[in-house]
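Q: I'm a student working through a structural biology exercise. My instructor gave each of us a protein and asked us to get a predicted structure, then write a short paragraph describing it. Mine is ATP-dependent Clp protease proteolytic subunit. I'm not confident about reading structure output yet, so if you can add a plain explanation after the tokens, that would really help. Here is the sequence I was given:
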Amino acid sequence: MSNLIPVVIEQTSRGERSYDIFSRLLNDRIIMLNGMVTNESASLIIAQMLFLESADCDKDIHFYINSPGGSVTDGFAIIDTMNYIKCDVSTISVGQSGSAASLLLASGKKGKRFALKNSEVMIHQPSISGGLQGQATDIKIHSDWLEKTKETLNGIYSRLTGQPIQKINEDMERDCYMTAEQAKEYGLIDKILLYRT
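A: Happy to help. First, here is the predicted structure for ATP-dependent Clp protease proteolytic subunit. I'll explain a few features afterward.
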């Protein structure tokens, strides 16, 4: 069931044309992240952003996010692309934006970072999933990488939210869940959307 993708049929002057729903949304400059931030999802999102920039670099891209998070390095790849392209990227949290996805949400163009009313946002320090094994030197390498990544994340969150590094560091020690209103007060988003205007 999870592989079913709805098809949209449109009437054109040449007859009917069918699109899968995601292609139709891309036509309206809408990109969606539904699920984990992975190498595969990052590759698709980056490709769509680059395509939309080449199609029209003066129009905004609307990036809808419903994700518990995932790979921070794949998240960085998406953020670097958002910053690299000429288009403004508007981010909209739908459901949840946790972990790496909260960083994607906050990385939208200032003034164009939104959440729907019942969205939740979660920030926390980076972690290694799965059991880490190996020699002490290998574990030290991973520990050093985690500490460096944590410092990078704290700096990015501080720059995007205006919060002091010390507060970010304290808040990210454990999972820190926020309502849409709390995320707005924190500076992760700019506005809560109740309905389309």
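A: Here are two points you could use in your paragraph. The beta strands are 7-12, 15-20, 30-34, 61-67, 89-98, 113-116, 120-123, 176-179, 191-193. The two ends are 34 Å apart (CA to CA). It's a good idea to check both against the output above yourself.
Q: Great, thank you!
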